Amino acid sequence: MFAQTISPVDVTRLPAPSSTPTLTDPVSQSCTASQFHEEAYAYWCEQIGEEPRNHRKQWEFCYIAQALSLAGVLTPGRSGLGFGVGTEPLGALFAARGAKIVGTDLEPEQARTDGWIDTHQHSSGKEGMNERGICPAHRFDRNVSFRFVDMNHIPQDIGEFDFCWSACAFEHLGSIRNGHDFIINTAKLLKPGGIGVHTTELNCSSNNETLSSGSTVIFRKRDFQAMIADLTRMGLKVTVNWDLGDQPLDYHIDLPPYSHDNHLKMQLDRWVSTSFGLVIRRPF
After folding, report:
1. Is the pLDDT higher at 17 or at 245?
2. pTM: predicted TM-score of the whole model, two decimal places
3. What pLDDT shows up at residue 18?
4. Do 73 and 80 form a contact (C-beta atoms < 8 A)?
5. How large is the C-alpha radius of gyration of the chain?
6. Which residue, 83, 272, 61, is CA-closest to 172?
7. Which residue, of 28, 72, 143, 228, has the fewest CB within 10 Å?
8. Short-list 78, 76, 80, 75, CA closest to 90
């Protein structure tokens, strides 16, 4: 009742490479059905205390964790910065593995105005980052700190990190331009050899018209290409796989009210959107 299918012609409007994206070797890529069947997906779901399901938000957590793990930064002596962490499980997961984590979120008054508190997607302190008890309390207290940060105005004194991440956050910064600037500004915070991993919305149905301003925006392929061009000029490395998948679930569009499962692509306003991840590396 609340879903429809999209034809292959529509959903593959963005050019596809010769291979579909995988969690085994993640690059900048979309959420696709085949990734849900990989061993890495089941592994990271277990680590965050969730049963695997076909849902793009869960994929975002697994994708970020896998990319950072393969980069070797989830270890003692490494430092990570999370943006818009809310009550997501990633900060606690990374701290449990020994990394020193700084979690950030909007200050409470602004978060309340924007509706994040009412939907339980905001953290007013670091305690909210370990709601699931993923990290032992003594290790969490030792490895995690927290500060309020507006992602549109990152403080100059925040420091440099071995890695940074955000899960479906920078599409809520007010405009395509603000999201672009956020990615560029966070890349500047990476130490040599550092890695940034961020997930957001990709417009699957148009590379022209989109939601370009407001509480949620949808980035087009060309918007990501503009980000990548600026990152490349800064000396950073980004590898992209534009493939959107070719399994039946990749052609399924979830309509409001959205489902708890089989939710990879969704109707958002007039467009079809899915989760897209960016992996940004600063060479040594």
Report:
1. 245
2. 0.91
3. 53
4. yes
5. 18
6. 83
7. 72
8. 80
Distance CA 253, CA 249 (A): 8
Contact yes or no for 160/191 (Cβ under 8 A) = yes
Q: Find all residues with CB under 8 Å of 98, minimum gap 6, and list them.
A: 74, 75, 76, 77, 78, 139, 143
Mean pLDDT of all residues in 179-183: 98
For residues 274 and 268, give the distance between their C-alpha atoms in angstroms, rounded to a whole number.
9
Comparing CA positions, the residue from 146, 131, 265, 275 lying closest to residue 201 is 275
Nearest to 150 by CA among 190, 217, 203, 104: 104
Q: Which segments of 48-175 does DSSP mark as H helices, in order?
A: 56-70, 90-96, 108-114, 137-143
pLDDT in tens, 39-66: 999 999 999 999 999 999 999 999 999 9
Distances (CA, A) of 242 to 28, 64, 122: 8, 17, 31
Q: What is the rounded distance in angstroms from the CA atom of residue 103 to the CA atom of residue 91?
A: 7
Q: What is the pLDDT of residue 114?
A: 59
Residues facing 250 on adjacent strands: none
pLDDT digits (tens, 9 = 90+) for 108-145: 766 556 555 555 555 678 999 999 999 999 999 999 99
DSSP readout, 152-173?
TB--GGG--EEEEEEES-GGGS
